[in-house]
Amino acid sequence: DADVTQTPRNRITKTGKRIMLECSQTKGHDRMYWYRQDPGLGLRLIYYSFDVKDINKGEISDGYSVSRQAQAKFSLSLESAIPNQTALYFCATSDPETQYFGPGTRLLVL
Amino acid sequence: RKEVEQDPGPFNVPEGATVAFNCTYSNSASQSFFWYRQDCRKEPKLLMSVYSSGNEDGRFTAQLNRASQYISLLIRDSKLSDSATYLCVVNRNNNDMRFGAGTRLTVKP
Fold it and tell me: Average pLDDT for consecutive 10-residue bins of chain B (109 residues)?
């Protein structure tokens, strides 16, 4: 089984809809992250969490919110999706040296 | 200007060739450095960390030049399986990672 899982893997939604992306990990790491990847821009950090009570904004948090429900779970919400949020979203966990990524969620906002 | 800059490529090389990628970063307070590999439509995976003294892992050699704020990756004896996008990653502090957009490598028979 994968150490970091994301659901859904693909999602198509319409402008204005609320959508939640889920992430779970079995690595026992405290640190979890949400990134988005766009062609030519690389991965950009949206939010990160160093433990259940800690949430921090990343480079591009506007339009997003997160919830750390447990050490193993970190969800990303788009309260009112817009087309420029179409991207590939990755969840990750980390130890002090390495980030471990989930398989990604492809989101298309029409 | 992006905080981490890479030549996007693509680099198209024959099997057995040596290829080098460079990456520059703008935040002089950056603390640690990495190369990640990303296959098409897959998640990034750590290839190697980059240490000040330089480090080697098989056919891969990474170098860091803090004074000039650049990082390099050298791949010797390229294999078909090396075809991927290589991401330069800079840890500003406390796991605040900044990623380059990646350099695409295609190794051809």
Answer: 89 97 92 94 93 91 94 97 96 82 96
Contacts of B34 in chain A (CB under 8 A): 98
Phi then psi dihedrals of residue A105, to 5 deg: -125, 125
Flag whether residue B62 sits within 8 Å of chain A, measured between CB atoms.
Answer: no
Closest alpha carbon to A29 in A66, A74, A68, A72: A72
pLDDT in tens, A48-107: 999 999 999 998 999 999 999 999 999 999 999 999 999 999 999 998 778 999 999 999
HSE-CB at B25 with a 13 A cutoff on CA atoms is: 26
Summarize chain B as % helix, strand, coil (round to 5): 5, 55, 40
- On the question of a cis peptide bond just before residue B10, with omega within 30 degrees of 0, the verdict is yes
Distances (CA, A) of A37 to A42, A75, A87, A105, B42: 5, 17, 6, 10, 11
**Best of B36, B97, B98 to disrupt the A interface by mutation (most A CBs within 10 Å)?**
B97
